[in-house]
Amino acid sequence: MSYYPASILNLIKNIAKLPGIGEKTAERLALHILHASRKETEELSRSILEVKQKVRFCTRCFALSDSDVCRICSDPTRDETLLCVVEQPGDMVAIEKSGAYTGQYHILNGVLSPMNGVGPDDIRIRELITRIDQGKIREVVLATGTNVEGEATAAYIAELLAEHSVNVSRIASGVPMGGDLKYVDQVTLKKALEARRAV
């Protein structure tokens, strides 16, 4: 790659630091930026700087927000008695895209992982309990991942909430739509059978 000028090499190197971007993709993106209009490159630069300057965590649910309270927490049409607990802001976005949920959220910003030194004080469990103690919430939906850490986190939170006057539910997991049973792993199939419902 030494045939590129130092400025292009520096751009390729910095783009390649992004997750999921290899050297070839970084090179392609750098060349695209080089050939884009000055206006397009300035807009890209401004949007990156704006994200770094403006985006913060919502003070209530810890979603990404441009203001102290995010648009979901400040929406009066959302059900304040229903709280969905997720691991990361991306999980909240996935649930929102489904259109199936109209309550509030609480983002843990992680999961319990003793092997990695992540305990209850390292994620936003204390803040969750504080929200529940305020008395508006009637049901907590645990929507953490179905891996070992996600399941352990859900079990830990469920145990903590047993002494509070809220209903606790767990999102169902199992066979994906369009999935072929013979290709589904045994753990997923077991979960699907355990979470079966009447039709």
Q: Strand arrangement, largest sheet?
A: 4-3-5-6
Q: How many domains is the backbone divided into?
A: 2
What is the second-level CATH architecture of the largest domain? 3-Layer(aba) Sandwich
User: Share of helix among residues?
Assistant: 40-55%
Low-confidence stretches: none
CATH topology of the largest domain: Dna Topoisomerase Vi A Subunit, Chain: A, domain 2
> Could you give the count of β-strands?
6
Q: Helical element count?
A: 7
Q: What is the beta-strand fraction?
A: 5-15%
**What is the molecular shape?**
globular
* Structural class based on helices, strands and sheet pairing: alpha/beta
Major beta sheet summary: 4 strands, parallel
CATH class of the largest domain: Alpha Beta
Task: Give the mean pLDDT.
Answer: 90
Tell me the distance between the termini.
Answer: 61 Å
Q: What is this structure's SSE topology?
A:
Elements: H1 6-15, H2 23-35, H3 38-54, E1 56-57, E2 64-65, E3 79-86, H4 89-98, E4 103-107, H5 125-133, E5 139-142, H6 148-161, E6 167-170, H7 186-194
Parallel strand pairs: 3-4, 3-5, 5-6
Antiparallel strand pairs: 1-2
